[in-house]
Amino acid sequence: MLGNFKTTAEVKEAIASNEFDVWLPNIEAMGNVLAPVHFAVYDKMGGAIVIEFVGGETQVYDNPVGVMTNDPPFPWHLEHMNNYARLTNVDKNSGQFQALEVEAPDSGGALAGLPSSNTLPDRFVKAAYYANYALEASSPEEAIQTLSHVMNNFDRPSGITIDEPSNTSGGEAVQSESATSEATFFTVMNDLSQGHFYIRTIKQINYVRFDMRELAGLEAVTTVSFQRLNSATSWDGNELLLN
Questions:
Q1: Is the Cβ–Cβ distance between 96 and 102 less than 8 Å?
Q2: pLDDT digits (tens, 9 = 90+) for 51-109
C-alpha cells in the first residue's frame, strides 16, 4: 500500500474497483475465524480511513476522529461516542451541595468521565479524547513528542489484567490452559511529514527511529528482529538495516 498510493482517496478508489486481492488466514487459536484485522490509513494531507473485513466483505470508512481500535466494527465505535458527548477537558473545580461549598484540591478532574478499562471500546474513547484535546504541535518533532506522551496511556504491562483459563474462543479471545495477561508488546509512531517510523518494544524504554527516505534505495527485503531492537544502543534504527 505504501509503495502504490499517495492518498487515502487513492486507496479507497483502488479497493472499490477491486484492483487488488486481500488474503485473510483462519486463526485456529481464535476458533478458526478469519483473522480479525483492521487497518487505519492516513496521508500527509490529513486524510484518514479505516479498512475492515466484516462477513467476508471489505469495508472502507472515512475516519472523522483519527483513531482506531479493533472489535467491534468501526461504525459501532462512532455510534458509541454519543454516550460521551459530555466529555470536556475543562475541569470543574468548585460546586455546592445544599449549604456546603466545595472546591477540588487539585486539577485533572475532567478525566473522571473517561472510561478506565483496557477494553477495545474504552480504549477507543480514550484515544479519541486525547487526539481531540492534546495541544496542537508547531513542528513534526513536537508532534512526535506529544504523541509519545499520549501513547503512554495505552502501554499495558503484563499482569495488570488477568484472564482465567478458557476452553472457548471467539472474536479476539484465545483458548488457553492457564491464566493469560494481555500486554503491549510494541508501540509504533509515524511522522508522515518527514518519513520517520518509530517503534518501541515491551523491553525498551526509548523508541528506535527509522528514516524511510534513507532506506528508499534498499532493493532487497530486510528485516530486524525484536531481539536486535531490544539490544539497540542508538535510537537510529537505520543502522540495524544498513549495517
A1: yes
A2: 998 877 889 999 999 999 988 999 999 999 999 999 999 999 999 999 999 999 999 99
Whole-structure pTM value: 0.87
**Is residue 218 within 8 Å of residue 189, measured between CB atoms?**
no
d(CA 185, CA 128): 22
Amino acid at 129: Y
Quote the CA–CA distance of 165 and 156 in Å, as a whole number.
20
What cell does 77 get?
Answer: 465505535
Within 13 Å, how many C-alpha atoms sit on residue 75's CB side?
6
Q: Which of 63, 91, 116 is the last residue of a domain?
A: 63
* Cα–Cα dist 48/234, whole Å: 32
Residue of 88, 66, 86, 87 whose CA lies nearest to 77: 66
Beta pairing partners, 95: 102
DSSP β-bridge partners for residue 34:
26
User: What is the total count of domains within the chain?
Assistant: 2
Domain that holds residue 231: 160-243
Rounded Cα gap, residues 43 and 58, in angstroms: 20
Q: d(Cα 92, Cα 107) in Å, to the nearest integer?
A: 9
